[in-house]
Amino acid sequence: MSGAGEAFLAVVGQEPTVPATMETVEGGFAFQPKEWIEQPQQVHIEDRGDAGMAMWVGHPVNVVNDFEPRPLWGLRGGEKFTVLDARMHVNGGSNFLPQQRYEASRLLAGAHVDGPDTRAVAVRYDFARPDSGWLNTPGVVTREGLVEAWQDELCSGLMWTPHEGESIHWLAHRFPTTLTALLHLWTGRPIEIERTQVLLQDGHWYPLVEAREPQQARRRSTDLLALSSLDLGVVATWLDLAHRMGPLPHIAVHEGLPVQVGAQVIATALESFHRRLKGGARRFPPQVTTRQLARAKKVARNAAVESLAEAAVDASTVRQAFDEALGHIADPTYADRLHQLLPDVAAAAPGLLGPDLSAWIHTMKEIRNVQSHGTSKHDAFDQDEISSYYVHQSSGRWALKILLLRQLVDDDRLKDALARSNTFHYSLANLDREHLWSGFSAYDTFIKSRS
Does the global pTM surpass 0.85? Predict the structure, then answer.
């Protein structure tokens, strides 16, 4: 399936009949159909009668919609394949209609399926290194499924059969990160998956084809722990442990910022901005003096010592605990800080922070607390959490940019700059694609505010 060549494409459910060129590009595959296989949302054609035809291309919301990944069916050399994540681009063509181009990172060879959410029975992975410790050992049943060793003449690998079928996307994209995190943590260096195959309901194994980035040369080093000592018992224990650890394994081994960390960084940066800009801000009115606050803290501390004496709690322990708890009682809360900062952002960029500023601040506060204190809330991190963290990270980053820019230019200049910025428009359109805010469009709200 790799390399340049000719293929035929169609939307899912139709016979692939539209000729297309296929080539391997950086990060995946590209398909150039000879004619449209579906109507692009970003292209609007109007028949003006005697005046001829008019066409508009490139509305940001519709560009984002067209770029949303979708499955396509294909044929190449008589073999079926499914493009699992085709993203549409529209380019200028030699005829009246612009050309369609699809880019994708993942194909399923040998079968037509409805898409990446199609259920699969099992998956097997080949790893680049053959010196694993799980060869020739019996499979182990975990809470979620059966993990087994398998090998051929080229590679050694692992096979995973969940107790209940999972989607191709989960088995081929999400679940492997749990294994590669273990291999990285175990050896101290990344070990990539070389091949992935999924077992479908028809009883056949089908390869998942990916265009891989060239591997950069890495400094030679010894394993932290020998891969040959990593047996299936350890793998099974890890699979159960990973469910309880949430994002911690991935944060531990990856140098990039997962969406959780990115959102946490933005949440902290907004608080830091307020501290730096308004360092003298206080929670209480100006008439409340420092001496009065100190006296109030002393009264609360002494009351706690007296109350807990009945439980035989050491007085010094109680004093220390209440001194720590009340140490920042005069400071504004996290929510207070953002409520002071963000109305100016909402005024400069209506829609960016959603339909309810208080709700946006509440969610950002929750993200900050969950990530900073390592609670187990949202450890499953399913699509709803991913969308929320993405939206708040992206909108929060723009809020921080706007706050900084407001220190350099006046509000009118800033508003005009945002109104002219395609990058900002696409960011708003991408927020809308997450459908986090029901019945509300960040993009439409901003555009209407400028009309």
Answer: no
